[in-house]
Design brief:
Chain lengths: 175, 186
């Protein structure tokens, strides 16, 4: 892992998330991009110790990550919260049914300051949906993101279920 | 050929290669469980459409192990993007077997689009999968299970009279993972 100790989470939110993933031992990632995830995705692509599979739809990523975990890897799924809606059945009838852990790194659009009206409905529904399927979720500030991302994977592995880290528009602005 | 015959031949091929075998939800898993239950079989009980994806993640995680997936036309049509992902990311140890019976066999045999002419062999090729095969008779099947890529097998509609899988999900995954995570035999 590169030495980025001089860079604070506030100065570089993407790096803080990446460092949390590395601290957790994440070595497999599936992704559907969000504009706010682009720097993080670049970091993953540059990391020879993480297998990164861009997928066509978030639900597909849930399946791929499940297989990677059954094969012994520590998987993360990076997506926008719109993709959570595409993934509910897989999270329930694959991950929750069999007890498969997953770290979900979710760009949470549709909240305060959102310029795209189409993001607003799922923005409001994201937390209720996670609560409904009993998936724990965290919403760190950038300064605590490394620690919370690492802890989120530990919780997923211990509880054998998916866990979500929600990163809203303010997070990506370093607030 | 009946689907259960193709599944039996696939199970024999998987056993011969010590392959991990992911099986699609519904009757295909029940038929596999009835013809050859192995701890190396992962029976899907939910998440229709994701057999090929689960197998892909597994094959990437365990590149030294052959991974076979038994999927169906309806399930692949539900997750068509998987063919593009497979084309660009699947390793050599991954084989997706699509048992195409032109219908949703577990829900009353309603026709799928392959019944109307949608060609999954051509779709896999067009998605960029290099090694795509098509077999319609049992005699050529065992050889077709060798290697990786996508294999489309035309089978008859209809389900065998087989019982429900008697294993709970916890047991299916625990015994499967003990096999999937063990070191390859030298």
């Amino acid at each position: 892992m590169p030495d980025h100790d001089s860079v604070s989470g506030a100065a570089n939110p993407s790096l803080a998330v990446y460092r949390g993933m590395k601290r957790a031992g994440i070595n497999f990632a599936a992704s559907v991009p969000c504009v706010n995830l682009q720097d993080l995705l670049t970091l993953l692509d540059g990391d020879p110790d993480i297998i990164h599979v861009p997928v066509t739809r978030e639900e597909e990523g849930v399946g791929i990550c499940a297989g990677a975990w059954m094969g012994g890897l520590c998987p993360a799924l990076l997506m926008q919260n719109s993709g959570l809606g595409n993934s509910i059945n897989a999270l329930a009838s694959l991950d929750l049914l069999y007890g498969i852990p997953l770290l979900m790194i979710i760009s949470h659009r549709g909240g305060s300051g959102e310029p795209v009206i189409g993001q607003v409905p799922m923005g409001r529904l994201t937390v209720p949906l996670l609560d409904a399927i009993e998936v724990p979720h965290f919403a760190p500030r950038p300064s605590e993101a490394e620690k919370i991302v690492a802890g989120a994977w530990r919780a997923a592995a211990e509880q054998r279920k998916p866990v979500a880290v929600l990163l809203d528009l303010e997070f990506w602005r370093g607030i | 050929m009946k689907r259960i015959e193709a599944i039996a031949l696939a199970a024999q091929a998987a056993r011969a290669e010590d392959a991990l075998l992911i099986s699609n939800i519904g009757f295909p898993s029940r038929e596999l469980f009835s013809v050859m239950d192995r701890p190396e079989n992962f029976y899907m009980l939910g998440s229709m459409g994701l057999a090929s994806s689960i197998g892909l993640g597994l094959a990437l995680a365990r590149p030294e192990r052959k991974v076979m997936v038994l999927d169906g036309d309806g399930s692949v049509l539900m997750n068509l993007g998987t063919l593009a992902t497979i084309a660009h990311h699947a390793p050599h140890n991954y084989l997706l077997v699509i048992l195409d019976n032109c219908c949703y066999g577990s829900t009353g045999s309603q026709p799928t689009c392959t019944h109307l002419g949608t060609d999954l062999f051509a779709l896999a090729r067009a998605a960029g999968v290099k090694n795509v095969k098509k077999v319609d008779d049992a005699g050529h099947l065992p050889q077709a299970f060798q290697g990786g890529g996508v294999l489309v097998v035309k089978v008859e509609a209809g389900n065998a009279k087989v019982p429900i899988i008697s294993l709970p999900p916890e047991e299916i995954i625990e015994r499967f993972m003990r096999c999937a995570r063990q070191a390859a035999p030298s």
